[in-house]
Design brief:
The structure holds two protein chains of two kinds. Chain A is mainly alpha-helical. Chain A has 21 helices and two strands. Helix content of chain A is 75%, strand content 1%. In chain A, a hairpin with a 4-residue loop joins strand 1 and strand 2. The relative contact order of chain A is 0.10. By secondary structure, chain B is mostly helical. In chain B, a hairpin with a 6-residue loop joins strand 1 and strand 2. Chain B starts with a helix and ends with a helix. The chains are: A mainly alpha, B mainly alpha. At the A-B interface, helix 8, helix 10, helix 11, helix 13 and helix 19 of A face helix 24 and helix 25 of B.
């Protein structure tokens, strides 16, 4: 066996090394008996993760696409970009988790948190880099099982446990359908290698059935309508930090994989037209239904759940154009959505940890007491709503452009109308913070250094990606060959 | 030449520093930061000018080269071969403008220490001054028309901000809006002109020897004329001049810097910049510019004779003098200067007058600032007899008045004489018209001078508050500018700036110079005869005799009222109102429908999110089946 193949997996291996180091360090990270405070609790994972991110990102520019392990594992520069995006997101999540993990009941479990998060990430790596349906399925499961544990992390809290239960039940359900879909695809094409499937599919009913079930399975992960019903309950019940992780990282990885597999396996085949029609209706439903629900929410986490569903709709809009441009638009959208959403979640976590409040009506008059947080939240919401000059405007623009070029002007129009509606509900929060008065506003507080770092990173992204079209061009540079 | 980038960067940095962190600085510190950065800019500009004019080798044809120390492709146009560039271009006129802008701006910075002392928003004031200076410098060193346009707009914004500096005064707010709207309106044409130019000539640059120009020749006159409308807006040419007199609501040093010396000559600069195109492709249009200029010069001079607010008199005199520069450019008929062709003399004359005018007009405004500072009023009735109280202001103001009237050896004489020579060479009628306007200039300037420094002292007002000479920070710039005004006329200006860049020796045509001196002196005597005495029975009698005419000119020929009528009665009532109705009922109605519909629908479907897992899985499955149906049928 040629061991040099392992070198292609350097991202996975270095992440595994981080996990192992943290596994050992967990023994030390347990709270000190005397002070009751954690040792190395956030800085060690953050430093390791930063190192890992930088190490894996740097050499990717000159690397070439290649395969390893008989085509089970695929490596392309674009995948490294995607993994780096996920790395940065995870880093921000770890930073904002600090305060929450410093709670008394969480101190003992904090090592678990990092391990679960990183295992999820590892699963996504394999999912992204897979060249074979089995590999893809293993990656998917590796990502979703620790995710369930994360959702139920506050296991003594009823809502968290309930959210975990709902999540695992529906995840199993969708996995079963996905696996069924894969087996049908195997039946129709006689192979599970992505590269070979395209040529074998003939548009028969069997292959359409397989494709539909496959889309269903990933649609669940991305939380597209009508596979989204778990989202609101799970997001509400899960700890806020985990909700942030769930809404960005897991969704992003799944959307990326959906696009790569659709393009590799189905874009050249007879199924191209039918998956486009299917996606068309899913997108319309996702964007519209989520917007309709988002308007009525008062719990901010539930609100963010519906916002995430509608954002997912915009995200897969890029898939309609099965080309490199769509891929670029998708990754850029993801990057921008990640910083905007994590920024908003960092503010929410910080407020929840300091005052225990999570309702939109609790945010009334926030500007009076915590003007800086209110301002940052506003920037993130503006970016989510797509107001120029923030990053969200450009990412939406590129996605719309990709869909428009693919020949779906009506779809773009529907999406635009929905953008207007989304503006309304995002601005509801801004209104609460700036205009409404409250008898019992959230008391002023100073957030900790880690949260602040997370906020700075996110806001920097929101602003810098908005100004610099450079990033889009940069990502575009990798999109050849996918 | 690489240091030129700091000429733009320093004021920008000082703007950022003062604009963002202004309230952390004391007034003194803020003023010092602004002034120090401007001092550095001035020193750099002088060094650049020295380097450029004296140390740069002329080309084989004896022309000063055009240098481009910086030029970056900022935004490329895909597939069009066009791009928006940003950079720095040095050629004779841009270097000359660097000197004018940095000198006057530095003087104004120093002067403002005294004038704005203790004002609220002192830091903001200096921040805006820096912003303006940066924009104006960027405008003159632009490497292409688009960069020029960008800075052109920035100049407009900073002018708007500075006119409305006293934002608690309704008059200042109205004036700033008026200035912004009128110039923006004109700039719209400028932009259209740029786009036509770019589309047909395939270039935004200032290198006019490409093949593209010949193929776009048919459209060039139109493009240039549209650009001229933009320039006419900034340079206050009739009928777009209405904003400039009102702009005097801003602080007086601002009027000196922006509305007398630098920004308002941007239109002249624009024509000079595109001069080779004008001469080659649109000479007929260029002469239209000359006649517009001549009319404006006359109109403004006539109005200036009847105003009582000293800043307004100066404002109209500025309009009139800028019109002189326009005329000078407009009467040009050739490009080459070889063998002393008078056909291209106007170009040099215009730039020369721009230079000298900037200095003496800034001096006049700064002097007026000292006077206003002393008597706390803009009205001539509050003044009179001030020469005893304010000797320095008096002498320097007199020097400037002599310069603008065209009395040798002050600078205005030399530049105005070149303009008159050029006008006579184009058409004797034009020459006589301009000579007559020059006479009017001398008359109204001395009317102003006597009204302020001689005449009846307003004892009643001065009893409360004796006028006093301004502090040193204010008089120092006056003295400096007065010295420049005395000496600038002797500069061999044609050696630095001429239409095609060749050396050009200025020589006085004594027929014309003699006539203009005689007429100017006669006008001054007339003004002395009418206005110098304690009382002015003759002036009152004249005003009484020509009551209608006087009132007409005093009200600026009711042009503002005409505009009011057109905008309010015609445009607002018949165009804007229907559009507003459409917006309110059709467009807003659509969005209201969207909002109400969304709300109603979201209320109806809320039952789906029930919380029961079995139901979720059921919907999941139904969704899958629906998707399958869609995809199979597709």
């Amino acid at each position: 066996m040629d061991y040099s193949q392992f070198l292609y997996m350097h991202a996975e291996l270095s992440l595994l090394a981080v996990i192992l180091i943290l596994f050992v360090a967990d023994l030390v990270m347990c709270p000190d008996k005397k002070s009751g405070k954690g040792v190395y609790n956030t800085c060690l994972p953050v430093v390791l993760l930063t190192l890992h991110t930088v190490l894996n990102f740097l050499p990717c520019a000159e690397s070439q696409s290649c395969e390893a392990f008989g085509g089970m594992y695929v490596y392309t520069p674009m995948m490294t970009v995607m993994k780096t995006v996920l790395n940065v997101g995870t880093l921000i999540v770890c930073l904002m988790a600090h305060k929450w993990l410093s709670r008394e009941e969480n101190l003992v479990k904090q090592g678990e948190f990092y391990l679960l998060v990183l295992f999820t990430l590892l699963g996504m790596y394999f999912m992204i880099s897979s060249g074979h349906f089995l590999m893809f399925f293993i990656g998917l499961e590796l990502a979703s099982v620790p995710m369930t544990a994360l959702v139920a992390f506050d296991k003594k809290r009823r809502e968290s446990a309930e959210a975990g239960a709902k999540f695992i039940l529906l995840a199993l359900f969708s996995s079963a359908l996905l696996l069924y879909g894969i087996s049908l695809i195997y039946g129709a094409s006689g192979t599970l290698y992505f590269d070979e499937i395209g040529a074998q599919l003939d548009g028969s009913l069997l292959s359409i059935f397989g494709l539909v079930l496959f889309i269903t399975g990933l649609g669940f992960k991305i939380s597209l309508v009508p596979f989204h019903l778990w989202t609101a309950d799970t997001y509400e019940g899960a700890p806020t930090v985990v909700t942030g992780f769930l809404s960005v990282i897991s969704k992003g990885a799944a959307a990326f994989v959906l696009l790569t597999i659709l393009m590799k396996c189905f874009a050249q085949s007879e199924l191209f037209y039918s998956w486009n029609t299917g996606m068309y209706w899913i997108i319309v439903a996702s964007i519209t239904v989520a917007n309709l629900f988002a308007i009525r929410q008062n719990n901010l986490k539930r609100f963010m759940a519906f916002s995430a569903i509608s954002q997912a709709g915009y995200l897969v809009l890029a898939i309609m154009d099965g080309t490199a441009q769509g891929m670029t638009a998708l990754v850029f959208y993801l990057l921008v959505y990640m910083v905007s959403n994590l920024g908003a979640f960092a503010v929410m976590t910080s407020i929840e940890e300091n005052s225990g409040k999570i309702l939109i009506s609790d945010y009334d008059g926030l500007y009076q007491t915590n003007p800086k947080l209110a301002f940052l939240m506003t920037l993130c919401l503006f970016s989510l709503a797509g107001i120029p000059p923030f990053a969200g405007f450009f990412s939406k623009f590129f996605v719309f452009m990709a869909a428009f070029k693919a020949g779906y002007p009506l779809l773009v129009f529907i999406a635009l109308v929905n953008t207007v509606i989304s503006l309304y509900y995002y601005l509801l929060i801004v209104k609460a913070m700036y205009i409404k008065q409250s008898d019992s506003p959230i008391a002023p507080f100073r957030s900790d250094a880690y949260t602040r770092l997370a906020l700075v990173l996110s806001i920097l992204g929101v602003i810098v990606f908005g100004i610099g079209g450079v990033f889009y061009n940069y990502i575009e540079g990798f999109s050849y060959g996918l | 030449m690489e240091s030129t980038i700091f000429i733009l960067l320093l004021p920008f940095l000082s703007f950022l520093l003062l604009g963002v962190f202004g309230k952390w600085f004391s007034h003194k510190a803020a003023g010092l930061i602004g002034t120090a950065s401007l001092l550095a800019v001035a020193v750099l500009s002088y060094m650049t000018a020295y380097d450029y004019f004296f140390c740069t080798a002329r080309t084989a044809e004896g022309v000063l080269p055009t240098l481009m120390p910086y030029n970056v492709h900022w935004l490329p146009f895909f597939a069009e071969g066009l791009s928006f560039d940003m950079g720095i271009m040095l050629d004779p006129i841009s270097v000359m403008m660097l000197i004018v802008i940095s000198t006057v701006s530095l003087m104004v910075h120093i002067y403002s220490f005294g004038y704005m002392h203790g004002e609220r928003g002192f830091q903001r004031y200096y921040a805006f001054l820096s912003l303006f200076t940066m924009s104006m410098l960027g405008l003159v060193v632009a490497t292409n028309i688009f960069q020029m346009y960008m800075f052109w707009e920035l100049v407009g914004v900073s002018s708007y901000l500075l006119i409305g500096f006293y934002y608690t005064s309704p008059a200042a707010i109205a004036a700033s809006k008026k200035a912004f709207i009128v110039t923006r309106f004109a700039d719209l044409f400028f932009l259209i002109g740029i786009l036509i130019y770019g589309y047909y000539c395939r270039s935004f640059g200032f290198e006019f020897d490409q093949a593209g120009f010949a193929q776009g020749a048919a459209m060039l006159p139109l493009a240039l004329f549209l650009m001229f409308i933009g320039g006419a807006g900034k340079s206050a040419m009739f009928p777009l001049h209405i904003w400039l007199p009102d702009a005097m609501e801003g602080p007086t040093p601002v009027s000196a810097l922006i509305h007398a010396a630098t920004m308002v000559v941007a239109g002249v600069f624009q024509i000079a910049r595109l001069f080779p195109l004008w001469i080659e492709y649109a000479p007929g249009t260029l002469h239209i510019v000359a006649w517009v200029g001549a009319f404006t010069a006359f109109y403004a001079a006539a109005v200036a004779c009847c105003q009582s607010d000293i800043k307004r008199v100066l404002a109209f005199s500025t309009i009139s003098q800028i019109a002189f520069m326009m005329v000078a450019l407009g009467v040009c008929t050739e490009y080459t200067t070889g063998h002393h062709h008078v056909g291209s003399l106007g170009y040099m004359a215009s730039m020369f007058h721009l230079f000298t005018h900037a200095m003496f007009k800034a001096l006049l405004f700064l002097g007026a600032g000292c006077i206003i500072h002393a008597v706390h009023s803009n009205e001539m009735s509050a003044m009179g007899g001030l020469r005893k109280y304010m000797p320095i202001t008096h002498i320097t103001f007199l020097i400037a008045c002599l310069a603008i009237s065209g009395i040798p050896p002050f600078s205005g004489f030399f530049s105005k004489d070149e303009i008159l020579t050029a006008a006579f060479a184009y058409m004797p009628a034009m020459g006589w018209i301009m000579t007559a306007i020059a006479a009017m200039t001398a008359f109204y300037m001395f009317r102003l001078y006597y009204g302020i420094f001689w005449g009846t002292e307003n004892k009643e007002l001065h009893a409360h508050h004796t006028p006093h000479e301004a502090p040193l920070t204010m008089t120092l710039p006056l003295v400096f500018l007065a010295l420049v005004t005395c000496g600038a006329g002797f500069l061999p200006f044609g050696h630095f700036v001429s239409a095609d860049g060749q050396l050009y020796d200025i020589h006085l045509d004594w027929d014309i110079a003699g006539t203009s001196i005689v007429i100017a002196v006669a006008s001054i005597f007339l003004a002395t005869y009418i206005y110098m005495g304690e009382r002015q029975p003759k002036a009152d009698a004249l005003a009484e005799k020509f009551k209608g005419l006087h009132q007409w000119a005093y009200k600026r020929f009711y042009l503002d009222e005409v505009y009011q009528y057109i905008t309010h009665r015609i445009i607002f009532a018949h165009i804007s109102k229907p559009i507003a109705w459409f917006d309110r009922h059709i467009i807003d109605g659509f969005f209201d429908f969207l909002a109400n519909g969304t709300h109603a629908l979201s209320f109806r479907i809320r039952g789906f999110q029930s919380g029961s897992v079995q139901k979720y899985a059921f919907v999941f499955l139904l969704g899958t089946l629906a998707l399958l149906t869609i995809m199979v049928l597709a």
